């Protein structure tokens, strides 16, 4: 407890310490909550549990929960199980929540991660009643210092009527000084965001708000949930090598140098494996401008390959978490944590000319990408930041394994069953089979390249058959609309996309 008070440097705030139960009693039915947390990092860990307990006696109690992205500490799971959600946005990755959302138990708004702040600022959706922000401590001048993510915490604090701060003693105080909090003006009154290099610092080290809004401070002492990525396997290593071959050929053709361009990579094991592959490459003096930093970025820093990394959250496996946060001084000068609207801002992504690598569920013959909806209907996680990056990057690269579910699903299909990234925003597709560089190619030039370089051999003939039947119908982007989704409906009815379809 004493250690907790020593982290509240502003003297007027020390008497605002309360229990999580008292803070939860302030939340009213129907409120909109803005919780810190981005991909399991920097989420609030005490209030959500107290809220679920408190709601047990009130069967109709429901709230809207807005966050940065997915939460750790099983918070999304307990919210979904307790049935207290009315609306959730902008991203989640919890299996229980996914199931309930797909059953229609609550509304989920799948939003580009850079958009939530703009919508709050423009008052085009519910405003935040209570922001709950995890912090390493509050400074003498009242700045709330975030922890392992910034996510949407700044806009939530600015927008909220009241703020509850969770000071987490398990988060190292060495995190102070690594954040860069910058909030653009309203659209229409805005100057250019003065960030021209990943390492530029343009804001304050903490969240500065009217201190009267800080209604309570809770102490917690619990680490972030570790990430559940698996180390690179043979298939993801092969994929990483294809991608590296592509980048090497860009260097050979003089389009990139050996330090490439600032890199963004999505979440998950494939993205981590791709970054891991850079360890063995000739690339050097790399910079990262991404949302989430996973284990591989720290390996690249250790190996002297990455000079600087900017992000909005740090999500690590348990051993890496101990290594990095147990020795944070070593990394601190090479890192910046920013709000997600800045890490994902179109203006900056375009200015820096990012190389952006994200994961797809399925891709089609013309390069459209589905990252979110299984069979076009069932939400997986959400679009996350992939759209922010793909639309604006110098190079929008999508990776996926060519088959799923032991080969019963082809990740290359005639027509994606849901479009997150249109053919206009997708530059390069990569699977373990190879890569297809779609830049400058018309629809009919793309098809054979994608089939031959990216589709699994067991599906190539079937895809060509579909294309032949589509060609008979003609058009700039030929399709046989009656057959376009037959692969998906056959999987639904027969459990496989293979062969049964006579095209
Ligand atoms: N149809 C149906 N299911 C498919 C599929 C397809 N075409 N392709 C993959 N799957 C299934 C897999 O079988 C696996 O199922 P399981 O959980 O039952 O094992 C699941 O989808 C996840 O696939 P996996 O290959 O393990 O990939 P992943 O963990 O890397 O996740 C996404 C892939 C697309 C779900 C994930 O990257 C995502 O949510 N992306 C969108 C957000 C984003 O890109 N953010 C980036 C900015 S940080």
UniProtKB/TrEMBL annotation:
Pfam families: AcetylCoA_hyd_C, AcetylCoA_hydro. Keywords: Hydrolase. Residues 12-168 form the Acetyl-CoA hydrolase/transferase N-terminal domain. It comes from the Bacteria. The keyword Hydrolase applies. InterPro entries: AcetylCoA_hyd_C, AcetylCoA_hyd_C_sf, ActCoA_hydro, ActCoA_hydro_N, NagB/RpiA_transferase-like, Succinate_CoA_transferase. Residues 327-466 form the Acetyl-CoA hydrolase/transferase C-terminal domain. The keyword Hydrolase applies. GO terms for molecular function: hydrolase activity. PANTHER family: ACETYL-COA HYDROLASE. Belongs to the acetyl-CoA hydrolase/transferase family. This is Acetyl-CoA hydrolase/transferase family protein. It comes from Piscibacillus salipiscarius.
């Amino acid at each position: 407890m004493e250690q907790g008070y020593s982290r509240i440097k502003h003297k007027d705030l020390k008497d605002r310490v309360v229990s999580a139960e008292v803070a939860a009693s302030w939340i009213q039915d129907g409120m909109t909550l803005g919780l810190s947390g981005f991909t399991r990092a920097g989420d609030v860990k005490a209030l959500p549990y107290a809220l679920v307990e408190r709601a047990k006696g009130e069967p109709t109690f429901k709230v809207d929960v807005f966050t940065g992205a997915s939460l750790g500490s099983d918070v999304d799971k307990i919210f979904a199980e307790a049935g207290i959600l009315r609306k959730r946005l902008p991203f989640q990755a919890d299996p229980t929540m996914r199931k309930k959302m797909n059953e229609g138990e609550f509304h989920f708004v799948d939003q580009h991660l850079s958009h939530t702040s703009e919508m709050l600022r423009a008052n085009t959706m519910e405003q935040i009643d209570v922001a709950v922000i995890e912090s390493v401590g509050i400074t003498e001048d009242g700045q709330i210092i975030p922890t392992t993510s910034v996510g949407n915490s700044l806009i939530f604090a600015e927008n909220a009527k009241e703020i509850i701060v969770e000071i987490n003693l398990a988060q190292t105080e060495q995190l102070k000084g690594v954040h860069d909090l910058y909030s653009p003006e309203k659209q229409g009154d805005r100057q250019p965001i003065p960030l021209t290099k990943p390492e530029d610092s343009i804001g304050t080290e903490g969240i500065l708000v009217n201190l009267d809004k800080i209604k309570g401070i809770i102490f917690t002492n619990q680490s972030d949930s570790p990430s559940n990525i698996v180390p690179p396997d043979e298939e993801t290593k092969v994929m990483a090598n294809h991608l590296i071959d592509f980048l090497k050929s860009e260097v050979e053709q003089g389009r990139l140098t050996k330090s490439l361009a600032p890199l963004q990579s999505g979440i998950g094991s494939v993205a981590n494996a791709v970054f891991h592959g850079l360890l063995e490459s000739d690339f050097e003096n790399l910079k990262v401008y991404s949302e989430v930093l996973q284990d591989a970025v720290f390996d690249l820093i250790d190996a002297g390959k990455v000079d600087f990394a900017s992000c909005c959250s740090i999500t690590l496996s348990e051993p890496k978490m101990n290594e990095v946060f147990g020795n944070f001084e070593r990394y601190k000068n090479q890192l910046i944590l920013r709000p997600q609207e800045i890490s994902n801002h179109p203006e900056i992504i375009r200015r820096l000319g990012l190389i952006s690598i994200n994961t797809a569920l399925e891709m089609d013959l013309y390069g459209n990408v589905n990252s979110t909806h299984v069979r076009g209907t069932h939400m997986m996680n959400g679009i996350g930041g992939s759209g922010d990056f793909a639309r604006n990057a110098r190079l929008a690269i999508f990776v996926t394994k060519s088959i799923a579910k032991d080969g019963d699903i082809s990740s290359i299909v005639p027509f994606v069953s849901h479009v997150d990234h249109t053919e206009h925003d997708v530059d390069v597709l990569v699977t373990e089979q190879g890569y297809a560089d779609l830049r400058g190619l018309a629809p009919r030039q793309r098809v054979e390249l994608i089939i031959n370089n990216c589709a699994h051999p067991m599906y190539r003939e079937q895809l060509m058959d579909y294309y032949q039947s589509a060609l008979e119908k003609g058009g700039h982007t030929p399709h046989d609309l009656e057959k376009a989704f037959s692969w998906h409906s056959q999987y639904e009815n027969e459990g496989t996309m293979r062969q049964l379809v006579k095209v």
